[in-house]
């Protein structure tokens, strides 16, 4: 057995997102989002699930904050539903929407919990999608306007901001692979959207600075790791293309002011013609105060000509998998963090999402989710290795506080440390909740 100790001052937290937990989609003046539309499109979401009720956190936020308080977290990462603030994306502001988030934030502050606000966690106002969504540069301006209103409204209350959650999912998963809203399958469109997202991020950071808002701002790319099956250069290059699609494609423009040439060349080979307007790259390269990193899983892979977008194939290594089928691959977490340190230096990092899917149900009021505890132990051990190797980690935020609407998987996949009965909306603390609570209290755990 080993004691895994974390640095003094390490911040601990949990994360959620508006469309996944709030429900109340037709209450409080909220406008329609692309996920309302997508989830009600037949065949898009398992069991035809949608976020109409979800965890009903719009009404039960005080109960959720009690769970956070008992857990002893330092920070709670939540997202704001843009359609609650601007029901049509721009124009008239919905005061009821602002009031809901004031209630939530005030309750967090009352309990001594730091609110970390994600401005965009995928619920784009449908009215903007109807005008081209993120492919329309006007959406960039609309996002900056929305962010400016939030900065001014919550200045002094919210001091940790994230512009975008997982821009790879917003652009490529949602507009090339097509698995998420709005469900396009067009590489040119997706790549251009990824650029507009980065411009929106940069202009929002610039607005944050110009307003002189107290606090820190960053963004939260999602990452993955592919370990080459062999030391053949073709295998190494293939794995670096997939890793680069998540990491360098989004982080090089922010930290270096340019897209990675090897990815640009690859996309050009695939017929992509990226339109970059004068000033875009300068806008993107605004200094961020911290980098959010989301990590779930990785794989072993090797080169395979004309296979998928990036010419690689998985090699089955029979790793244990979580209930959503993702390999348990903690070494990938360490490798991602080391890749980021080597590429971008000592930028302060918050792990803004790391967690696992286990669908254990309550038995006599207890949820024995040993798989999730083991996943947390393995990945927190990998995190401690990265910290020992000099990665500037400031905090760890697990996904998620609650079981919730897991996008295209609907309610079939559970990531929470708290179980939610979707019929009664009853919350039940899982064994992982109690394990995480003890780890937070100790700032260490025993492996
Ligand atoms: N790369 N090629 N893929 C080929 C085919 O993929 C099809 C499906 O792909 C993916 C990839 C990634 C995800 C995903 C989900 N979460 C969990 C959420 N994170 C934000 C928060 O809201 C959590 O709910 N993180 N990532 C889902 C599906």
TrEMBL record:
<dbReference type="InterPro" id="IPR017736">
    <property type="entry name" value="Glyco_hydro_1_beta-glucosidase"/>
</dbReference>
<keyword id="KW-0136">Cellulose degradation</keyword>
<keyword id="KW-0326">Glycosidase</keyword>
<feature type="binding site">
    <location>
        <position position="399"/>
    </location>
    <ligand>
        <name>substrate</name>
    </ligand>
</feature>
<feature type="binding site">
    <location>
        <position position="121"/>
    </location>
    <ligand>
        <name>substrate</name>
    </ligand>
</feature>
<feature type="active site" description="Proton donor">
    <location>
        <position position="166"/>
    </location>
</feature>
<dbReference type="InterPro" id="IPR017853">
    <property type="entry name" value="GH"/>
</dbReference>
<protein>
    <recommendedName>
        <fullName>Beta-glucosidase</fullName>
        <ecNumber>3.2.1.21</ecNumber>
    </recommendedName>
</protein>
<feature type="binding site">
    <location>
        <begin position="406"/>
        <end position="407"/>
    </location>
    <ligand>
        <name>substrate</name>
    </ligand>
</feature>
<comment type="similarity">
    <text>Belongs to the glycosyl hydrolase 1 family.</text>
</comment>
<feature type="binding site">
    <location>
        <position position="296"/>
    </location>
    <ligand>
        <name>substrate</name>
    </ligand>
</feature>
<dbReference type="GO" id="GO:0008422">
    <property type="term" value="F:beta-glucosidase activity"/>
</dbReference>
<dbReference type="GO" id="GO:0030245">
    <property type="term" value="P:cellulose catabolic process"/>
</dbReference>
<keyword id="KW-0378">Hydrolase</keyword>
<dbReference type="InterPro" id="IPR001360">
    <property type="entry name" value="Glyco_hydro_1"/>
</dbReference>
<keyword id="KW-0624">Polysaccharide degradation</keyword>
<feature type="binding site">
    <location>
        <position position="20"/>
    </location>
    <ligand>
        <name>substrate</name>
    </ligand>
</feature>
<keyword id="KW-0119">Carbohydrate metabolism</keyword>
<dbReference type="Pfam" id="PF00232">
    <property type="entry name" value="Glyco_hydro_1"/>
</dbReference>
<feature type="active site" description="Nucleophile">
    <location>
        <position position="353"/>
    </location>
</feature>
<feature type="binding site">
    <location>
        <position position="165"/>
    </location>
    <ligand>
        <name>substrate</name>
    </ligand>
</feature>
